[in-house]
Amino acid sequence: MGRKSINKERIEDPQIKSTWLRALMPMLFDGQLHGETMATIAQKVGVSKATFYKHYHSKEALLADAVDMKIEQISRFAALLFDEHESYLNRYANALRSASEELAGISNDFLMFLKQRHPDLWQKIDNLADFATRCFRQFYEQGIEENILENFDVNMMALTDSIIIHALTDPRILMESNITIAAFIKEYFEMKSKAIFKKN
């Protein structure tokens, strides 16, 4: 007779999971944990494999939560972009700085791994790109209306942003250019700011 499967007790405490995620995310996003076992990952947060399994039943579940948390962190740029307590220029600068800081540490190897091995999670990255494009489109419209930005074609600018940001869905472009996603986004939007903001 085969061995009966044991139903492990699940706890999945959100606070504990959040603490572990924050500790593991730097290693996860730079590719250090791709080949590690659950036992080794558990050691990195100082608990036993059995304890870790009570909160995470697989590496895939851990990865999914980590991607969700990172997307939530990156998405905070939108609140800064539309913060009416700041000047229009500061809103742009603050949003760019926040996004760049949250993207820092995500390696090109991790992006390639995610796209090739976890297309469902990669779709969330695509959705984030769409969200960013919509936010900046709205931001451009407001800037032109308030005579802060040059009077350019918003549809064309939003399309350009979409093409550029979605180009990151092929991490090979970044790898061949030897540039990280954080550096790419920062340089692109800083260069663009020189063209779209009125000189005064």
Describe the structure.
With 200 residues, the protein is mainly alpha-helical. It folds into two domains: 14-63, Homeodomain-like (Arc Repressor Mutant, subunit A), CATH 1.10.10; 75-196. The protein has eleven helices and no strands. Helix 6 runs antiparallel to helix 11. The model is unreliable at 1-7 (pLDDT under 50).
Question: Topology of this protein?
Answer:
Layout: H1 14-29, H2 38-44, H3 49-53, H4 59-74, H5 77-81, H6 88-103, H7 108-117, H8 119-145, H9 154-166, H10 171-177, H11 181-196
* Secondary structure tally, helices: 11
* Percent of residues in beta strands: under 5%
Mean of all residue-level pLDDT scores: 90
Largest sheet: none
Topology order in helix (H) and strand (E) letters: HHHHHHHHHHH
Number of domains: 2
Backbone CA Rg: 20 Å
- How far is the N terminus from the C terminus? 81 Å
SS class: mainly alpha
Residues in helix, %: 55-70%
Count of individual beta strands? 0
Shape estimate: elongated
